[in-house]
Design goal:
By secondary structure, the protein is α/β, with parallel strands linked by helices. The protein is built from 6 helices and 17 strands. Strands 7-5-4-3-2-1-17 form a 7-stranded mixed sheet. Strands 8-9-12-13-14-15-16 form a 7-stranded mixed sheet, with helices on one face.
Length: 263
């Protein structure tokens, strides 16, 4: 399996664009997949520079309903005329940040006949499956960090029912893709226990001070208790990643715009 990071907050190369967001191209034996589209058309520009033909993508997935993962969807639908886009049925809800700013998806795209709305579980084929895990117990408490959703006219803390995960089976390996792990990365690894996890951990709001270090240290030890290789970036946070890396060593690596992985 070949994984190309099209956009992330940082860049590994001088000839690619970075932006706050995430977009990953995945090439398996059967499929060419776009997992998230960043917040703009930057993923398209980077794809061209990285030798990725977006017009050949046959499946697209949106991990959740935030602009920095689905803001490039309109550009994708224009550049590609064959792929359906798998999106959770709650993804087009009204999502806001802690300052009341709208951070959701472009609701005009709801008119596209290429959107496929998913529920808690969908097996696409023997290689790909999507899960929202909304019926799973969240053993580890999660923090929305001020992110909100409008429910029945009331703005309330986001429960992230709109988040889904892509599980790819590649021979004897199970690779899980998670956009931001809003439901808690510790919950997610407990639910799936994949061989590889690629995605953000949503730790960037945890201050790397005495209390924060103690918290991050506990998280790192929990993650290490599973035989998983982790690739993270985006909402994990630079300082938070550096602290985790000091504990997790070669079990944790950073993804950035332009990085290519062979798994």
């Amino acid at each position: 399996m070949k994984i190309t990071v099209l956009t992330e907050n940082t860049a590994c190369r001088d000839d690619v664009i970075s932006e706050h967001g995430l977009s990953i191209y995945i090439e398996t034996k059967k499929h060419k997949i776009l997992f998230d589209s960043g917040q703009s058309d930057a993923f398209l520009k980077n794809a061209e520079r990285l030798g990725v033909d977006i017009s050949k993508v046959d499946i697209a997935v949106l991990s959740h309903g935030h602009y920095d993962h689905g803001g490039g969807l309109k550009a994708f639908l224009k550049a590609n005329n064959i792929a359906n886009v798998y999106v959770n049925k709650f993804a087009f809800g009204k999502h806001y940040n802690q300052n009341g700013k709208y951070i959701g998806l472009d609701c005009e795209l709801l008119n596209s006949n290429r959107l496929i709305f998913t529920d808690d579980e969908l097996k696409i084929d023997g290689e790909l499956s999507l899960y929202s895990c909304n019926q799973c117990k969240r053993e580890y408490k999660t923090d929305p960090f001020g992110l909100c959703v409008e429910s029945k006219g009331i703005i309330c803390p986001d429960d992230f029912l709109h988040e889904q995960y892509l599980l790819v089976k590649d021979e004897d390996k199970r690779i899980l893709f998670s956009g931001c792990s809003h439901k808690g990365v510790l919950n997610i690894v407990k639910w799936f226990s994949p061989d590889v996890l690629v995605g953000g951990f949503h730790f960037s709001k945890i201050e790397v001070n005495n209390d924060g270090k103690e918290r991050l240290s506990r998280y790192a030890q929990e993650l290490l208790s599973y035989p998983i290789k982790y690739y993270t970036g985006h909402c994990t946070g630079d300082a938070q990643y550096a602290f985790l890396k000091g504990i997790m060593a070669d079990r944790l690596e950073y993804i950035c715009s332009g990085r290519v992985l062979e798994i």
